């Protein structure tokens, strides 16, 4: 697998500003001057005598935080009581309990950290089709645009320094475990910024992203379905259903989605199937249990990047505005001089004809919630995760500037890897609501344990050939010889988290995580003989945590600050480092302070944060599946986000982030990269948009809007010699809502959406893989879409 891991090291003064989509906004406007309509998720109400119940956020009942890095207890809740009142929606969705941010059942406004939630309504309105799309409206978050190069960047860090969890469960380094999927089965996406090992374990240096699937609700059965097409011939479709059954206390949710997506690069396509279901059963008012299963099937013919080419070679076909700078090939190595992207290669796929990437995943989760007393609640969840992954590609496309290679200047090299992964685990926690010296207090203590087995048959030979830059004869993979590696991780973690409300408006919030774990590795050659240094074992026992406060100085205006730490394997991957290299843990710390403000009768909201992060003992990718010691990364920045609904028909939102990240103590024989910016880290990211709903008498409700995204300059490697230039994209959409009527009695609501992505057809460099620094990934071109959705 080509993306075994993408390490980034950062260092410096950073500023980031951000604004989030109005995820809580509903489809229909309210009366003039009224607050926004309520979102479907409620904030838990403080109760010293009893902890808020757990439930599905789509049920309109209270939800609580997930149970930690390896689990997310989704046990059903008791019916709503008067104490569990419905919280009003807010433009930035800060009344939604963020499971991935705290185990204490806190909303983003109650958490002393930068927390964002992109809800199902925003996913639908903004047309975030995939799990990669869904992160792009968040403040300062970027992602690889190529559908098969999964990597995220946040607060100056990228790749495996961003934990990606699924229903709160962390299944391993993001670069080779994350599966791109459709968003139809999701309820929301949660973002926790900065070091967050307390919540998600190893690897959460830049932050974490938690994808949460749809869960059951109590009440009448609700169904939804959609189908859509685009101008490349792609299709997407899905069906979902949920509600209460005829069995008292038993609620269900079932979703299935399927897509066949074609890209703007030649011969790229993706087939995606996702089936998810869950049953919630309430045995009594004090005991609830649940069970959930999922299946995902992903198949793709992939694009592995476009080669950087000397301007002198491309001549009149040299492009401007995509890349700039000079390069010496990391693969040949010949001097390319000033480089460009050749306009004749904008749609070219250099992969072999029989390339593929396939992934199959299965999930099984089950657990319970037991209210032992009015103020003590026990929760537990057990889970099993299985994955089979296969990469079979020509992954190197490097220009060779040897004068003798005029006709076939592109060097190609194959890569194969297969994964078999199995993880089983359990997470149990106890919540105790009490009063300490007359002061309201909530304490959560928990234990997490998991066992991970990883088998990795990988290529032992790497077939090589040469092809033309224009209209290459792509050929086939050729001879494949494999060797075998395994890794086993056994981990146990002890967590404690507490919130002490010193006054009704001032709270101290903190937590600690003690996480001893062991890694056992084997590696054999093609004949089955152990390689030098194998097998071997290593173990660590990191302690991480955070401490902070929130202060609601006046109603709606909250100040917060926090200090947080994180740790991860210094190389990010279980397989990259040679056993003779010291496999140690990094340590990271962060200072953050900020303001969260809800105003204008709940119709406007803004947040601000400033942070300073430092990560030590860093390794970085140096090309060719190797890593090198980089010292430390420093990242400082500020973020600002805002959203408003000045009047019912108009919605406005935006965010801006500025970050300055740089290496320190990154010295090597012959030079130094200290002061350089890590790859793929833009200084500035800006998102914004608006929509207006037309309600003239005699018309069907029509809403039209747009969104703009600007990503600043980024470097492709640690050397900072090649710059991926800044780009701006614009999306436009309009949808028509057809309410239930005599003609449409079957459906409560029908929506027909028209959308144009990348309206200006901008051509831009979206991402670079530091392991393959001679090529870059181009962003998606203009696409026209039409989609029809139903609720019934």
Automatic annotation (TrEMBL):
Region annotated Disordered, chain positions: 26-95
GO molecular function, one term: siderophore uptake transmembrane transporter activity
Record localization: Cell outer membrane
Family membership: Belongs to the TonB-dependent receptor family.
Pfam families: Plug (PF07715), TonB_dep_Rec_b-barrel (PF00593)
Polar residues bias locations: 81-95
CC per GO annotation: cell outer membrane
Record organism: Bradyrhizobium manausense
Coiled coil regions, renumbered to chain: none
Protein known as: Ligand-gated channel protein
Chain ranges of the TonB-dependent receptor-like beta-barrel domain: 328-759
Leader sequence segment: 1-25
Domain TonB-dependent receptor plug per the UniProt entry, residue ranges: 108-207
Superkingdom in the source lineage: Bacteria
Keyword hit for Membrane: yes
Family matches, as InterPro entries: Beta-barrel_TonB (IPR000531), Beta-barrel_TonB_sf (IPR036942), Plug_dom (IPR012910), Plug_dom_sf (IPR037066), TonB-dep_rcpt-like (IPR039426)
Annotated membrane topology: Multi-pass membrane protein
């Amino acid at each position: 697998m080509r993306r075994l891991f993408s390490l980034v090291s950062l260092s410096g003064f950073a500023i980031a500003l951000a604004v989030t989509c109005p995820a809580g906004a509903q489809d229909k406007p309210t009366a003039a001057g009224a607050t926004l309509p309520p979102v479907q998720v409620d904030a838990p109400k403080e109760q010293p005598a009893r902890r808020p119940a757990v439930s599905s956020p789509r049920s309109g009942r209270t939800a609580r935080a997930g149970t930690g890095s390896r689990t997310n207890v989704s046990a059903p809740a008791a019916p709503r009581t008067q104490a569990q009142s419905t919280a009003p929606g807010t433009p930035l969705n800060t009344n939604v309990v963020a499971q991935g941010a705290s185990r204490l059942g806190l909303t983003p406004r109650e958490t002393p950290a930068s927390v964002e939630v992109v809800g199902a309504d925003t996913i639908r309105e903004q047309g975030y089709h995939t799990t990669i799309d869904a992160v792009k409206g968040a403040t300062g978050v970027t992602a690889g645009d190529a559908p098969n190069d999964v990597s995220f960047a946040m607060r100056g860090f990228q790749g495996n320094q961003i934990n990606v969890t699924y229903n709160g469960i962390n299944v391993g380094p993001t670069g080779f475990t994350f599966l791109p999927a459709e968003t139809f089965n999701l309820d929301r996406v949660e973002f926790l910024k900065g070091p967050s090992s307390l919540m998600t374990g190893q690897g959460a240096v830049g932050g974490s992203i938690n994808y949460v699937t749809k869960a059951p609700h109590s009440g009448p059965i609700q169904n939804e379905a959609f189908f859509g097409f685009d101008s490349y011939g792609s299709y997407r479709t899905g069906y979902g259903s949920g509600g209460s059954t005829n069995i008292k206390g038993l609620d269900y949710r079932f979703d299935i989605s399927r897509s066949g997506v074609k890209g703007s690069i030649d011969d790229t396509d993706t087939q995606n199937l996702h089936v998810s279901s869950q049953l919630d059963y309430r045995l009594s008012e004090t005991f609830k249990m649940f069970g959930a299963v999922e299946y995902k099937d992903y198949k793709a013919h992939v694009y592995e990047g476009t080669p950087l080419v000397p301007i002198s070679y491309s001549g009149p076909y040299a492009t401007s505005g995509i890349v700039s700078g000079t390069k010496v090939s990391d693969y040949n190595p010949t001097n390319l001089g000033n480089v460009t992207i050749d306009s004749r290669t904008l749609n070219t796929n250099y992969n072999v004809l029989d390339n593929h990437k396939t992934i199959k995943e299965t999930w099984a989760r089950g657990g319970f919630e037991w209210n032992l007393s009015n103020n003590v609640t026990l929760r537990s969840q057990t889970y099993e995760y299985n994955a089979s992954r296969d990469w079979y590609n020509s992954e190197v496309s490097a220009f060779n500037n040897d004068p003798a290679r005029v006709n076939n200047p592109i060097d190609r090299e194959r890569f194969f890897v297969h994964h078999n992964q199995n993880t089983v685990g359990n997470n149990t926690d106890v919540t105790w609501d009490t009063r300490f010296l007359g002061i309201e207090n909530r304490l959560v203590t928990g234990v997490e344990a998991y066992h991970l087995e990883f088998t990795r048959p990988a290529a032992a030979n790497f077939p090589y050939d040469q092809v033309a830059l224009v209209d290459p004869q792509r050929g086939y993979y050729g001879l494949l010889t494999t060797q075998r590696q395994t890794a086993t991780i056994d981990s146990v973690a002890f967590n404690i988290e507490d919130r002490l409300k010193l006054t009704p408006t001032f709270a101290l919030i903190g937590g600690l995580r003690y996480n001893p774990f062991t890694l056992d590795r084997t590696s054999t050659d093609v004949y089955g003989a152990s390689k030098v240094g194998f097998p071997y074992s290593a173990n660590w026992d990191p302690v991480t945590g955070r401490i902070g406060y929130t202060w609601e100085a006046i109603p709606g205006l909250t100040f917060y600050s926090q200090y947080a730490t994180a740790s991860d394997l210094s190389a990010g991957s279980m397989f990259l480092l040679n056993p003779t290299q010291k496999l140690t843990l990094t340590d990271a710390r962060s200072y953050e302070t900020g303001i969260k403000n809800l105003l204008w009768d709940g119709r406007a909201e803004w947040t601000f944060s400033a942070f300073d992060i430092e990560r030590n003992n860093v390794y970085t990718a140096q090309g060719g599946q190797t890593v090198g010691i980089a010292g430390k990364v420093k990242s400082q920045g500020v973020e600002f986000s805002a959203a408003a609904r000045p009047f019912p028909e108009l919605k406005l939102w935006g965010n801006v982030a500025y970050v300055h990240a740089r290496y320190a103590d990154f010295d090597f024989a012959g030079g130094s990269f200290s002061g350089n910016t890590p790859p793929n880290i833009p200084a500035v990211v800006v998102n914004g948009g608006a929509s207006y709903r037309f309600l003239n008498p005699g018309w069907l409700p029509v809403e039209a809007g747009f969104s703009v995204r600007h990503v600043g300059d980024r470097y492709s490697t640690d050397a900072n010699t090649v710059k991926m230039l800044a780009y701006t994209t614009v999306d436009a959409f309009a949808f028509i809502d057809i309410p239930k009527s005599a003609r449409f009695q079957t459906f409560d609501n029908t929506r027909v959406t028209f959308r144009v992505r990348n309206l200006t057809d901008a051509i831009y460099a979206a991402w670079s893989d530091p392991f393959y620094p001679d090529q870059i990934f181009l962003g998606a071109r203009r696409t026209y879409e039409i989609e029809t959705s139903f609720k019934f």
